[in-house]
Amino acid sequence: MLRKIARTVWDILPHSVLLKMIRVTQAKFTVSAAVVIVNEKGEVLVLNHALRFNSGWGLPGGFMERGEQPEDGIRREIREETGIELDSLRLLSVRVIGSHIEMMFAAVSVGEPEVMSREILELGWFTPETLPEKMSGGQKGLIGKVLNGEV
Predict the structure, then answer these.
(1) Of 24, 28, 63, 76, whose CB has the highest number of CB atoms within 10 Å?
(2) 45-69: per-residue pLDDT in tens?
């Protein structure tokens, strides 16, 4: 009986009210995206982030804005941080870490990057052999897979 009443109420409430009810009762997530950007020489762009713990070196990326599509978000982040555009953008993986959703992309660089954000200390193009020593092992592994055509 209670289920029937709940269903009736659900059916008559305006969509905007239902959406607010859902958002209030559901867990909140943060969403970020990072990208393996390759140049014409087969090198990968890596940034030294001011706000990253341990070693600041890592793949470029950032947090998505509310209502932003993932492809648009990663393109915006890269433009803001380095000034370059992305070509051949493709999704590699999506994973959930606690209350965080992480999306990984691969793309080809259009243009030469420069530091354009105070969040970035420096940047550089690297081969797998010359990647910064303290960079995340997981990111190094992903870079190797992208460059070897495994993903």
Answers:
(1) 76
(2) 999 998 777 778 999 999 999 899 9
Residue 77 within any structural domain of the chain? yes
Q: How many domains does the chain have?
A: 1
Which domain, by its residues, includes 62? 28-147
SS3 77: helix
Query: What number of residues does the chain have?
Result: 151
Q: Where are the alpha helices (DSSP H) in 26-92?
A: 70-82
Residue 8, C-beta contacts closer than 8 angstroms, at least 6 positions apart: none
- 98 near 62, Cβ under 8 Å? no
Q: What is the CATH number of the domain that holds 90?
A: 3.90.79.10
Stronger pLDDT, 12 or 74, i.e. the higher one: 74
HSE-up (13 A, CA, CB side) for residue 103: 19
Question: pLDDT digit string (tens) for 122-139?
Answer: 999 999 999 999 899 999
pTM assigned to the model: 0.83
